[in-house]
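During the no-cost extension, the postdoctoral fellow (Dr. R.K.) reprocessed legacy sequence entries with the updated structure-token encoder. One reprocessed record is reproduced below for audit purposes.
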Amino acid sequence: MNGNIADVKVKDLTANPAPLGLMGFGMTTVLLNLHNAGYYGLGAMILSMGIFYGGLAQVIAGIEEWKKGNTFGATAFTSYGFFWLSLVGIVLIPKLEVLLGVGFAKLAPTPTAFAAYLFMWGLFTFFMFIGTLKANRALQVVFLTLTILFFLLAAGNYLGSAAILRIAGFEGILCGFSAIYAALGQVLNEMYGKTVFPL
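Re-encoded structure tokens follow.
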């Protein structure tokens, strides 16, 4: 050694966290939008998926993307993980009235306030979609359909339109399945060492 500091390259052997994040997002989105399309009510199944798979699993995936130096993945997965957790909070916090007998029911957002919440998520997603123009086609489809979904949900809530919300439900099912496709494509392409599902 001559006292100079040498560059050290470390090979990253950690797994790709994106399929976990995409599956957490995709499956939870499909299930919620089956509700929005009118197939069943909003119950513990959707709320639990929102907390654990849509929420916590995506936050974990986002932290793993951060460790890999992927700013886009870290921002997307962590943000949407907390979106799901905040959405569950919006549903459950007003229901604490029943348990605690305190004024929690008045904390339920008005349709206009909920539309503003959804609009902001749509705006965020639109800018993230612009980022996907440097990524693969599958990811572009996920973010484009998600942008449309948020704006449809915002419009449906603002206008009080059951028809728009139902349309949003069907569009959201497409969005969720596109994320599932992107996730399974990454997993199976890696497992088989070739392109099984084009991305």
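The mean pLDDT is 92. Residues 162-192 form the longest helix (31 residues). The remaining legacy entries will be reprocessed before the final report is submitted.
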